[in-house]
């Protein structure tokens, strides 16, 4: 039989990557953070001062962007042209611009192509926005995660605060709302639940409960 793909999509800061990592670790699957790829492309464009509103200018430099993953302990270590950028891609300049970059057609085509290659022969858990709809429409298991927006902002705020002492909860809330708006309304593969995706609202669930929920869905395919 073929390899198993678990697709985890949903809104920003819903705990997708926390669940995806735990699931991959438990099952010995490969974890791929597709959002990190859009973030790394965004970082490259910002550093090069490329006009993000100019799709042709963005497309022209895409061949200069080489992304690689180093999987250590099921964390995401992403390399942009051999430089580890895992921390820098989480900072506000990238977070504020990534959804605009992710709306560009040529960027999505390139990322989707690379993502499909990663899931062609291996068992993987991939999280993102269009994994169950566009990247792997035939994934055996599709989860669509959601949670109360206030709870999501508080979680993300706690995560960012240690390294960003000036950040405010309002700023984080606004960024999440803005990204969700752009992600759900863009023309090119917008964030939407695949018809066969199972909804997982984790507002009141512990990480352990979420893991068990997901394991139960994958079990029949093992
Ligand atoms: O998952 P994360 O929040 O790091 O993703 C950052 C941004 O990348 C999202 O807000 C979205 O604009 C974009 N993205 C996407 N498709 C994916 C993964 C992420 O458009 N599969």
TrEMBL record:
Name of one Pfam family that matches: Cytidylate_kin
Protein name: Cytidylate kinase
Gene Ontology BP term (one): pyrimidine nucleotide metabolic process
Encoding gene, per UniProt annotation: cmk
EC numbers, comma separated: 2.7.4.25
Ranges of residues in domain Cytidylate kinase: 6-217
Upper lineage: Bacteria, Pseudomonadati, Bacteroidota, Sphingobacteriia, Sphingobacteriales
Keywords (A to Z) from UniProt: ATP-binding, Cytoplasm, Kinase, Nucleotide-binding, Transferase
Localization terms from the record: Cytoplasm
Residues noted as binding ATP in the record, renumbered to the chain: 10-18
Any GO CC annotation of this UniProt entry: cytosol
Protein's UniProt keywords contain Kinase: yes
Similarity annotation: Belongs to the cytidylate kinase family. Type 1 subfamily.
InterPro entries, per database record: Cytidylate_kin, Cytidylate_kinase_dom, P-loop_NTPase
Major subcellular location class: cytoplasm
Molecular function as annotated in GO: ATP binding; dCMP kinase activity
Catalytic activity: CMP + ATP = CDP + ADP; dCMP + ATP = dCDP + ADP
UniProt superkingdom: Bacteria
């Amino acid at each position: 039989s073929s390899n198993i793909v678990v697709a985890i999509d949903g809104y920003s800061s819903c705990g997708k990557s926390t669940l995806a990592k735990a699931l991959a670790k438990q099952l010995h699957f490969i974890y791929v953070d597709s959002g990190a790829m859009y973030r790394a492309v965004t970082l490259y464009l910002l550093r090069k001062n490329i006009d993000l509103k100019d799709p042709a200018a963005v497309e022209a430099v895409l061949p200069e962007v080489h992304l690689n993953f180093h999987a250590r302990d099921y964390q995401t270590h992403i390399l942009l042209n051999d430089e580890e950028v895992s921390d820098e891609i989480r900072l506000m300049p990238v977070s504020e611009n990534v959804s605009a970059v992710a709306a560009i057609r040529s960027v999505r085509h390139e990322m989707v192509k690379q993502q499909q290659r990663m899931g062609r022969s291996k068992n993987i858990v991939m999280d993102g926005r269009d994994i169950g709809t566009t990247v792997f429409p035939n994934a055996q298991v599709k989860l669509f995660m959601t949670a109360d927006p206030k709870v999501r902002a508080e979680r993300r705020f706690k995560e960012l605060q240690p390294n960003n002492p000036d950040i405010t909860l309002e700023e984080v809330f606004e960024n999440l709302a803005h990204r969700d708006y752009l992600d759900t309304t863009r023309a090119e593969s917008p964030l939407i639940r695949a018809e066969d995706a199972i909804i997982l609202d984790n507002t009141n669930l512990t990480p352990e409960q979420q893991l068990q929920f997901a394991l139960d869905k994958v079990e029949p395919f093992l």
